[in-house]
Amino acid sequence: MKMRYFLMGLFVWIFIPLTEAQECRLYFPDETGVIREMKSYDQRDRLQSVTRHEIIDRVERGDDITLTVRASYLDEDEEEFYNVDLELVCEDGIFKFDMKNFLDPETMAGYEEMGIEVTADDLHYPARMNVGDNLPDASIQMVITSNGMTILTTTVSLTDRKVEAMEKVETEAGVFNCYKISYNTGTKAGFINVSGSAVEWVADGVGVVRNENYNRRGRLTGYSVLTFLGK
Q1: What string of DSSP letters covers 106-174?
Q2: Strands 138-146 and 149-171, how do they pair?
């Protein structure tokens, strides 16, 4: 399973508001018609993929909010090869995103004739974060079976998530005041274990502005950056 869809925006964009107030504060645009575009590069600044998200519907029911987002995935030639509609749901003051929506579509297509069972924890962020705050872990597990036998179990986890600082980040899309969040990443596929770390910069009403991925030696392996935000 390719890590870029887990770590490109990673993760993208889902946040928990203050439960005392029972209201949603989104770190993601929520106006219909708005498009977010992020481009992902390797450590040598070569374009690897593009992800576009368009808000196509917004529904309020009392204090709850549901966003429908059309996600389009493009290759390094910026040719679309997959798209899917995702739901971002805020219920009881908690805005959440199912990490199953980050599965690599190319990888999933390769196992379409086999049995696939996916379990995941939602990715959460507090509505109001303070420097030094620790954030909830998140994970996803995919079990591939054939004729009732388990062929491969893959688990991806995001742990030790921490708000490191408030920083201003400038990209093609503009200048944004962001929370800088660090976390550790781990992927286990059979007997193979890969560990690393990541840093993301997240802005209120925008989502992930920049994300950087590092291997276990601390070397940059790739990054994603917000390149467009608007209609």
Answers
A1: HHHHHTTTSEEEEEEPPB--BSS--TT-EE--EEEEEEEEETTEEEEEEEEEEEEEEEEEEEEEEETTE
A2: antiparallel
> How high is the pLDDT of residue 16?
30
The answer to whether 133 touches 154, Cβ cutoff 8 Å, is no
CATH of domain 4-230: 2.40.360.20
Residue type, 109: A
Q: Where are the domains of the chain?
A: 4-230
How many CA atoms, within 13 angstroms, populate the side-chain half-sphere of residue 206?
Answer: 25
Closest CA to 158 of 112, 189, 195: 195
Predicted pLDDT of residue 112: 64
Element (H, E) at 105: helix 105-110
Tell me the two tokens of residue 96: 């959440």
Are 209 and 176 in contact, with CB atoms under 8 Å apart? yes
Q: CA nearest 38: which of 72, 69, 89?
A: 72
Which residues does the chain have with pLDDT short of 70? 1-24, 92-95, 98, 100-113
